[in-house]
Amino acid sequence: MRAAFLGAVLIGLLVGGSVLGIRLLRAGGGTGATPPEPAGNPAADLAQRFADAWQESDYAALYLLLHPASQAAYAAVDLEAAYRDFARETTQIAIAVSVTEANEAGARFDVRLQTAYFGTLEYSTTVRFARDESGNLRVRWQPDAIHPAMTGGRVLRSEIQRPRRGAIYDRNGEPLAITRDVRVLGLDRSAIRDETAVRAALQAFGFPREAIDRAFASPLPRYYRVEVGVVPDERTEEANRLVLETPGLVLAVEERRVHPLGPAAAHIVGYTRELTAGEAAAMPGRRPGDRVGAAGLEAAFDELLAGRVGAALRVVGPGGTVLQTLAEQPYVPAQDIHTTLDARVQRAAFERLGGRAGAVVVLDPRTNELLAVVSSPAFDPDAFERGDAEALAAYTNDPAKPLTNRALHGLYSAGSTFKLVTGAAGLASGLVSPATRLDCGAVWYGVDPPRRNWEGARGPLTIAEGLMRSCNPVFYEIGLRLYNERPGFLAEMARRFGFGQPSGTPGLDDAAGLVPDDAWKRRARGEPWYPGDEVNLAIGQGDLLVTPLQLANAYSAFLARQLRRPVLLAGGAAEPIGEPLPLTDAQWAHLYEGLRLVTGPNGTAASAFWALGYTDFGGKSGTAEDAELQQHVLFVAFAPVTAPAALAAVVLDDGASGSLEAGPIARDAVLAALGR
Questions:
Q1: How far apart are CA 674 and CA 366, in angstroms?
Q2: What is the value of pTM for the model shown?
Q3: Which of 313, 396, 478, 591 shows the greatest Cβ crowding within 10 Å of its Cβ?
Q4: Closest of 661, 660, 666, 621 to residue 646, by C-alpha
């Protein structure tokens, strides 16, 4: 359907405010051959054949059922035009015709019409029968055989008002998705005189051979217009000359959905696609070929962005007077969507990933507004708008899964970034305090088998110092104490930080992830929750699964001391979820100091921050050093440390060091958000 652009008609052209009514039929047609009348019930058989031919749009067969007098009055081409015009005016998608009565005088039909803009129309109509010279029963056809309102020169006329799809904007008014008029060069293969010359002209214009071959091989009828490619505005005159000189080429203006940020915002903004006939039938106000949001914000806010077609189906008299309105659908204008995203930050974060598989989520922890949601590898969303089958097949078959939104649907172990939650649980439980020092030995013997620390012994450390050095034994010990004295409290604290549940943000269809606990393990595996499960969870390992969005929001929750929904729509407010985090001022300050120490001169991320002069950051890493089987790396950074105004969570699918690989990306994403 996409290739049939600029007036290529499938069920007719519906543009502007109105379309032509059903055409008057010309008199004087051929008589046509009449099939012999079968034995049995001639009237019932004739009525059924008429209903079948109408329902199957077999107008040649229908014409053969007409009485010679009707064939003399109406040409076959005009009969077909009358039915096709009726389908166009009513925006017909499907039709069912059943015989309810038939005798020598005529037949009565019940018609059920499924339309794009008027819902399902049901009505009854009749035809008269008469014998021909051979004595066979035939149909005495008049236009009111199509619809009873079509008598005395009356016609059906539809008026259609189509909204132009709304735009999606960033926080500064920069378009992330917009509908534009583009010039398209295409083929009318029925008018081509010299295929070789046409191909040469298109190649000389700059279209790739694959696009030209695809247009020539289109399965659409030859008289349909099929697109070859878009013409840049500055080459319009050149394209006009080419069309004049080359029979078979056509230039048209077509609405096209455009996503200016391209791959940088592909996953969060999304794309549109064409509706199939079956889908359109289930969506009032849509027709096959209409575009519908298929992913991202385009899908989430499709109803607002699309608006609703206004349509009226009226009976019009010979003088143009409206006599009756048969059906009407009110016009609903399309709406623009204004987001909190920042196109500049979105581009910077995407470019900083440099094609590495992973995700970046940037937000303002003061308002919890999302500034960037990036997933890599990505794709060109406009390939879906163009219907580029080759590109779409490549995306679908790519083992790197560029269509997957890792920021919202990627599920990862949190690694050492989860130690903030474990520290909070330990302090809130009262089992440890800011003054408590726990041994950071080279090996921890709390459970079997013993577990090694990634960097050897560091001596007794506070929780803040444990965060600074990402010491596993410190958090193993907290986990074991919680297991023994406050079972389930660590999992409960994780949920207080937003893990294990979708964000609930309008416009985001994000994964829930998983916070494992005793109930889950018994249900999923039929086993109890062991001490080893708890200490694994304490360092963000085991069965814990989080999304990059959850990770960013969890750290934002810590900074605000309250879990909130991320904000994506401009003007929205961060809705609190549950009670504030159960931390005293002293406990919160102790954990905050630990995050500040991570990027300081003695922290695990010193080389990416302090050593390079970035002294006003806080953050936490999660790396493969925490568990030999962990392959992805993570980092959460925020700044300025005295009053955080930007926060970024970065997850890379493959890496060796969260501090050295994910840390610099998070740092630079925060700097971009701060305008530095």
A1: 13
A2: 0.82
A3: 478
A4: 666
| Single-letter residue type at 394 | A
Q: Cα–Cα distance between 194 and 247 in angstroms, integer?
A: 8
Task: Kindly report, residue by residue over 509-530, the tens digit of the pLDDT.
Answer: 999 999 999 999 999 999 999 9
Answer yes or no: is 350 within a domain.
Answer: no
Rounded to an integer, what is the distance from CA 234 to the centroid of its chain? Answer: 32
Residue 445 has pLDDT above 90, yes or no: yes
* Nearest C-alpha neighbor of 581 from the set 470, 498, 487, 485: 498
CATH number at residue 633: 3.40.710.10
Q: pLDDT band at residue 3, thresholds of 50, 70 and 90?
A: very low
Which residues are within 8 A (CB) of 431 and not within 5 positions of it... i.e. 6 or more apart?
478, 481, 482, 485, 486
Provide the residue range defining the domain that includes 102.
42-150
Q: Domain tally for the chain?
A: 3
In a domain, 181, yes or no: yes
**Is residue 413's pLDDT more than 90?**
yes
The last residue of one of the domains, among 150, 185, 208, is: 150
Whether residue 474 has pLDDT greater than 50: yes
Q: Is residue 355 situated within a structural domain?
A: no
For residue 125, give the H/E element and its range.
Answer: strand 120-131
Give the pLDDT of residue 419.
98
**CA 253/CA 5 separation, integer angstroms:** 9
Burial of 191: CB neighbours in 10 Å, binned 0-12, 13-18, 19+:
middle
Phi/psi for 283 (5° steps) reads -125, 100
User: Which tokens go with 354?
Assistant: 């440099």
Per-residue pLDDT tens digits for 29-88: 444 454 555 557 999 999 999 999 999 999 999 999 999 999 999 999 999 999 999 999
Helix-then-strand count for the chain, H and E: 24, 23
